[in-house]
Design goal:
Layout: E1 9-10, E2 22-24, E3 29-30, E4 43-53, E5 58-66, E6 70-79, E7 84-93, E8 108-113, E9 118-124, E10 127-138, E11 144-153, E12 161-167, E13 170-191, E14 194-198, E15 203-213, E16 217-229, E17 232-240, E18 252-255, E19 258-261, E20 265-268, E21 278-282, E22 287-303, E23 306-322, E24 328-344
Parallel strand pairs: 1-3
Antiparallel strand pairs: 2-12, 4-5, 4-15, 5-6, 6-7, 8-9, 9-10, 10-11, 11-13, 12-13, 13-14, 13-15, 16-17, 16-24, 17-18, 18-19, 20-21, 21-22, 22-23, 23-24
């Protein structure tokens, strides 16, 4: 179930189907909107960053997405110390590929703003930059205003988890994604009148870069974390439930910026609620974790034809992760998130 693709190639053929499904350690698929067999209303493109400050116990999440029928933008501040969330959202109707999102995750620049918030994302060689602002955002402690100027470093030897898969029921529906974990992050964050300096040995980011044409109804599970473990960069990406994963999964451990692929993952979420402890296991016994939730960043939308129920839960992981050579890593109180998302659109 783990077909690794190594040759650079176009993503889609003349019929709009993926030429070679699987996973890769670096971006190998060339994406072009013109090859997608779907209306512009159905094509989905997004850049999503989650920044985690281990020292200051907070996370920033930045969403810049074009869902075809609308653009969706969000800035969220998650306070792990108090278990509270503050968020600012905006939409732009009928975006349909006009927001300027790049067809690749290489050098680029994209920006959007209104009176309430602004987002600018860019990359130049090894450095990515995130500029965000929400001047009237009310923070969990009552302070008003959030701004951030962050630099993320992606060293050339970094392996990322890339996946290209389709849906059994509709092979012209596809999911192209790149997850880049353990991006050392520095810069400043202003919370109200307080300015916080972030240092790269204590703050780490993940990029979720995605392009695709989905089926109408989907539910997925995703978990991610990035940081340092015994002076080594360490993180993981876990995901399932979205598209046909018979060609490849997107489950992997990142250690010293190298990928260690693991088998199938299961999230055991308590029926009593998302903020009770979870158990996450792998079929090959190489990833066994408990997840202790702190806060559920929940968003709900129900407009008949369009429905979304999202639970992105932030907290701490404890357990073991086993590398390809059998090395067992012990993980204690490692911050990250796990989510359960249902979408119908």
């Amino acid at each position: 179930m783990q077909h690794e693709v190594t040759e650079k190639q176009n993503l889609l053929d003349a019929q709009g189907k993926i030429i070679e499904e699987g996973w890769a350690r670096r971006p190998v698929w060339r994406y072009d909107r013109k090859h997608v067999r779907a209306s512009a209303l159905r094509i989905k493109e997004w850049d999503y960053y989650s920044i985690m400050s281990h020292k200051h116990s907070f996370s920033l999440c930045v969403t810049f997405s074009d869902l075809g029928f609308s653009g969706l933008f969000a800035i969220a501040y998650i306070d792990l110390a108090t278990g509270k969330v503050a968020q600012k959202d905006a939409i732009k109707l009928l975006s349909m590929g006009k927001l300027g999102l790049s067809p690749h995750s290489g050098d680029h620049a994209v920006a959007w703003a209104n009176k309430k918030m602004r987002i600018a994302l860019s990359r130049k060689e090894e450095r990515r930059r995130i500029l965000i602002g929400a001047p009237d955002l009310v923070l969990p402690d009552g302070r008003i205003g959030l701004d951030a100027d962050l630099t993320l470093v992606q060293i050339p030897t970094t392996e990322s988890l890339n996946i290209a898969t389709s849906w059994k029921e509709k092979r012209t529906a596809f999911y192209l994604n790149e997850k880049i974990n353990c991006l050392a992050t520095s810069g400043t964050v202003r919370l109200g009148n307080e300015s916080i300096t972030l240092k790269p040995n204590e703050t780490f980011s993940v990029l979720d870069w995605g392009r695709g044409r989905w089926t109408y109804v989907n539910r997925w599970f995703w978990a991610s974390a990035s940081g340092m473990l015994d002076n080594h960069s360490f993180g993981f990406n876990l995901g399932y439930g979205f598209s046909d994963r018979s060609a490849a999964s997107e489950n992997a451990i990142f250690y010293d910026h190298k990928i260690h692929k693991i088998a199938e993952i299961t999230f055991n979420i308590p029926e009593s609620g998302y903020t009770e402890p979870w158990v996450i296991t792998s079929s090959d016994n190489r990833f066994e974790m408990t997840f202790k939730p702190v806060v559920d960043r929940q968003t709900k939308t129900n407009l008949l034809l369009i429905k979304s129920d999202q639970h992105q839960v932030f907290g701490y992981f404890n357990g073991i992760a086993v590398l390809d050579d059998g090395t067992k890593l012990v993980v204690e109180n490692f911050p990250g998130f796990a989510e359960d998302v249902f979408n119908r659109f």
